[in-house]
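Support request from a user on the community tier.

User writes: "When I paste my structure tokens into the form, the page sometimes reloads and wipes my input. The last time it worked, I copied everything first. Here is what I submitted, just in case something in the input itself triggers the reload:"
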């Protein structure tokens, strides 16, 4: 009897010990899980007030290093809308936020485009020397410049068949333009080059004369300063309809043909309508830039400017 009682006590003691071990184990697992969860981005982002839906977007769009940097910033209600934009560039994140704070009425997608092309900075204030291994992809605008002594390679004189007198172009560009011209001619349009390659000094003369006539602000709207003109690259052309007696290319059927077909031959409309705030120039239906067929088609299909393409696909 005493032996049975002793055995029962031992069994009860073992059961209690087992229960305690289980309780401690469960508590230990919970502590480990809690600690592990506290190390997750989800937990850390929740602590700075991002919602679970926002966190899903953040973890999808950003890598670990980028999220770690984000953890040192305050909650921003515009973050997920900004990073979901197709052309979002992480290095510009703080600039996006600053631009939003200073321009609260601008659409967030527009903010991404504007900041990507440096429109949060002053024109010509801190110019960047343009540099790209493929010359036809050089960006030259009010932020990027060419040296005074820069001269493009393979510049050749254009034929009177394809242009007015005293024009010259990069050879690759000229060959592509001949293809474009011939295709337009078949469709009933005669589209001639009016202006093409200009050196630094010639561009300086153009801008200075406009400045004298209209003042600096107006001159900058319609002409590039020396060193900042695409014409100095040898890859840009201004065109005209041979039959346009009114000298208004944008009102001609030739313009419509160019707008719909130029990309097939490697050219883009460089300063489109309703993109003035992106390019920094007034609408110029006559100004086209050669970038090659593949890139021209991408720019055309995505309805973006070369400035936007350069920022996202090349400079990034």
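"...and here is what came back when it finally went through:"
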């Amino acid at each position: 009897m005493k032996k049975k009682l002793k055995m029962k006590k031992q069994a009860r003691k073992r059961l209690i010990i087992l229960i305690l071990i289980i309780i401690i184990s469960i508590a230990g697992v919970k502590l480990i899980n809690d600690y592990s969860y506290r190390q997750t981005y989800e937990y850390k982002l929740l602590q700075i007030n991002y919602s679970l839906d926002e966190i899903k977007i953040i973890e999808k769009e950003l890598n670990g290093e980028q999220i770690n940097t984000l953890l040192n910033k305050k909650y921003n209600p515009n973050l997920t809308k900004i990073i979901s934009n197709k052309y979002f560039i992480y290095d510009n994140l703080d600039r996006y936020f600053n631009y939003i704070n200073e321009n609260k009425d601008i659409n967030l997608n527009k903010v991404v485009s504007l900041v990507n092309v440096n429109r949060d900075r002053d024109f010509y204030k801190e110019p960047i020397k343009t540099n790209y291994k493929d010359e036809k992809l050089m960006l030259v605008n009010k932020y990027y410049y060419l040296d005074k002594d820069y001269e493009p390679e393979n510049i050749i004189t254009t034929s009177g068949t394809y242009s007015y007198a005293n024009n010259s172009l990069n050879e690759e560009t000229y060959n592509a333009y001949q293809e474009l011209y011939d295709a337009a001619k078949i469709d009933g349009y005669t589209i001639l080059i009016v202006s093409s390659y200009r050196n630094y000094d010639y561009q300086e003369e153009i801008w200075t004369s406009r400045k004298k006539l209209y003042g600096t602000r107006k001159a900058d709207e319609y002409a590039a300063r020396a060193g900042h003109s695409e014409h100095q690259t040898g890859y840009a052309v201004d065109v005209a309809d041979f039959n346009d007696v009114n000298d208004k290319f944008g009102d001609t059927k030739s313009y419509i043909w160019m707008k719909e077909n130029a990309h097939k031959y490697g050219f883009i409309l460089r300063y489109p309508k309703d993109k003035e705030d992106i390019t920094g120039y007034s609408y110029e239906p006559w100004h086209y830039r050669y970038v090659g067929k593949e890139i021209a088609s991408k720019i055309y299909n995505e309805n973006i400017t070369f400035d936007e393409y350069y920022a996202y696909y090349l400079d990034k």
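Agent notes: The reload is a front-end session timeout and is unrelated to the input. The chain has two domains: 41-116, 128-315. The radius of gyration is 31 Å. Escalated to web team.
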